[in-house]
Amino acid sequence: MIVFNPRRPRPIPSPGGMVLDPRKAWPKEVVVACILLLAYFSANYGSSDRREVAMAHFRELASLEKRLGIFVERDLQQLILGTPLVGFVNVFYALLHSVIILGFAVTLFVTGRNEYPYVRNLLLAFSLISFLIYFLYPLAPPRIMDEYGFVDTLDETPGVSYETGFLSGLMNLYAAMPSVHIGYSLIVGGFIYLKSRRLLFRLLGPAYPALMLFVVTSSANHLLIDCIVSVPLLIFTVLIIGKVDLPGRLARYLRR
């Protein structure tokens, strides 16, 4: 079972041998978060005027899925249209997922979990690689592809539309490949599975990315292939940060 004790934060040993003190390291953690946001907005700006290219890429991948027999996203969406599940998947996708990931990372940090430096760097590296792919390969989400029969349910749910309102100025509309929602949920779910001792908590580990897979496909925010690509990309990220000792290097920077 995972046990958190927020009342007594302790220094965090990193894989590189350094120690992070949550009470002293938070300003630089904020700087790292700001750099991550800057990278995201840079990729967003670089692909904002590439709608036709993004839609052309979607048609290519949709054709590939049809050849492979896995073009099931439209059928999944039809299952939830007209039901309360529409509101659930939209809110979960646009808002709750971000709250869960941020809450997960902050909890690890403030409670002094030993695994925090590695988890933080895994999230950071996976995100940066994904942002680079967004810039190089903008991809439209299924929900804006009316010609395939998809419905943009996000646009019909107040407060979570990516096309209008507050979120429209923050979100990259053509960042469908890979699905960071799936990547992040695999990181969180993997941590819960590996660090929990009770069966119920261990079951929650794989249940979270499984739920996320249903959410992102039934809400027509991602093709199935976007989700599949996230898996080898995450494995590649794990290998890379272990090879170059990124956790140790970043930990040493944060201790300066």
The domain count comes to 1
Could you tell me the radius of gyration in angstroms? 19 Å
Helix and strand run: EEHHHHHHHHH
Number of E strands: 2
Specify the structural class.
mainly alpha
- Share of helix among residues? 55-70%
Q: Proportion of β residues? A: under 5%
Quick gist of this model?
By secondary structure, the protein is mostly helical.
Your description of this structure?
- The protein has one domain.
- It is mainly α and 256 residues long.
- The longest helix has 26 residues, at 22-47.
- The two termini are 34 Å apart.
- 64% of the residues lie in helices and 2% in strands.
- The protein has a two-stranded antiparallel ribbon.
- It has helices at residues 22-47, 51-68, 73-80, 85-110, 116-136, 180-195, 199-218, 224-243, 246-254; strands spanning 12-13, 19-20.
List the topology elements.
Elements (H helix, E strand, L loop, with lengths): L11 E2 L5 E2 L1 H26 L3 H18 L4 H8 L4 H26 L5 H21 L43 H16 L3 H20 L5 H20 L2 H9 L2
Antiparallel strand pairs: 1-2
Q: Which key phrases capture this entry?
A:
mainly alpha; globular; disordered N terminus
